[in-house]
Amino acid sequence: MMTLTSERVLSIQSHVVFGYVGGKAAVFPLQLLGYDVDVVNTVNYSNHAGYGRSGGTKTTAAELDSIFQAMELNELLLPTRLLTGYIPGAEALSAVAKLASKLRRSRPSMTYLLDPVMGDAGRLYVAPDVVPVYKDMLPLATIITPNWFEVELLTDVTLKDIPSLHRALDILHKQYRVPNVVISSIPLNGWLAAALPSSILPPSATASTHLLCISSSLPSSALQSSHLYASDTTRSIVHAQCVPLIPGYFSGVGDLFSALLLAHFHQDQTPENVAASPLSEAVSQALTKTHAVLLVTQAQAEALPEEERLPTDDELDKEYPLRKTRRMRGRELALVKGQDVIRGRGHAHVREMMLWDGFWDTR
Q1: Where is the Pyridoxamine kinase/Phosphomethylpyrimidine kinase domain (predicted)?
Q2: Which residue has better confidence, 21 or 233?
Q3: DSSP characters for 224-276?
């Protein structure tokens, strides 16, 4: 048997030839941070959907099963960490779920970050039958990184106030047994801003100027309890941080964030900051680096010729498709230019996730 000498990630998500979304946004950062990465592509496209036109194919469930079976026969399924992202259909997702379950049984200590990529801003961009499969997969995960809309899909709770946010997190932690939940890029709606402690909410922050990131993790003592999910008294530790909004359209941001979060998460390490948790510490690193890469990307885009910086105009974009293509092309994540940022060089200030003291008492 092969002996593991370092951490190895199995990444199962989309692939594009041009640009940085899915695996193209995740694999390079993981490698920069010292991880060997095995890559399975759930789709093979020319470019992401934001360009308006693309070519390529989806990987079928049978093709995924064939890959997984051959890897197992050759003793090549050796991940210490699993990362899953965009998987557009229920059959293919079920094949991935079957593999994740098998890996979880054989490697109980494996860290599994499940990014339930289903949609955004009230719009699904996968088949609806994917949703129940994701719900069945949640108990396998160590960390999940849904956006606002995906939390609503997974919990059947409309997030409209603090009590509904409490209900959603309780469902994810107690019903689905997810130890660590991260919700990033949350619009800073009025009710949410009103509930935030002053230590987290910047002066004059609004939904148009800032986004909110929330992390919720069960304490290590609770994770070791066999009665955890029968107890209504068990509460997660919640951290949050506001991030200045960078105007413009970017793709692959969630994929980059999830990869950085997985890379920096170490459940068994005790943070130096007594108010931090292993999850909040990892989110702080991922949030800081993702924001810094976006700033590099924004600067790169602003330096492009004017014809590649034209504003969105649906009518003109439809009449002249290359107008949109050039705009999208100029806003691809600047991962290569930002590789020192990813390695942690050149930025001293870490955007720390702050303890939301009294979160569960807020009404």
Answers
A1: 84-184
A2: 21
A3: T-TTGGG-TT---EEEEEEEEPPPS--SSHHHHHHHHHHHH--TTPPPSSTT-
Averaged pLDDT, 78-82: 97
Structure pTM? 0.93
- Find the catalytic residue in 129, 255, 314, 357: 255
The rounded Cα 27 to chain-centroid distance in angstroms is: 13
Q: Using one digit for the tens of pLDDT, what is the confidence trace for 164-183?
A: 999 999 999 999 999 999 99
DSSP 312: P
Q: Six-digit token pair at 204?
A: 């004059």
Residue 313 falls in the annotated catalytic set: no
pLDDT band per the 50, 70, 90 thresholds, residue 6 = confident
Question: What would the mean pLDDT of 194-219 be, rounded to a whole number?
Answer: 91
Task: Give yes or no for residue 4 having a pLDDT over 50.
Answer: no
Phi, psi of 80 (to 5 degrees): -95, -15
Contact criterion met (CB below 8 Å) for 355 and 237? yes
Residue ranges and CATH numbers for the domains of the chain are 8-361 (3.40.1190.20)
Place of tokens 């009449």: 319
> How, if at all, do strands 210-217 and 237-244 pair?
antiparallel
**Pair of tokens at residue 151:** 């939390």
How many H-runs (helices) and E-runs (strands) does the chain carry?
A: 13, 12
- Write the CA distances from 279 to 145, 146, 205, 282, 325, integer angstroms: 12, 15, 25, 5, 38
> Cβ distance 186 to 150 under 8 Å?
no
Q: Specify whether the CB–CB gap between 155 and 178 falls below 8 A.
A: no
Q: What gap in Å lies between CA 83 and CA 102, rounded to an integer?
A: 15
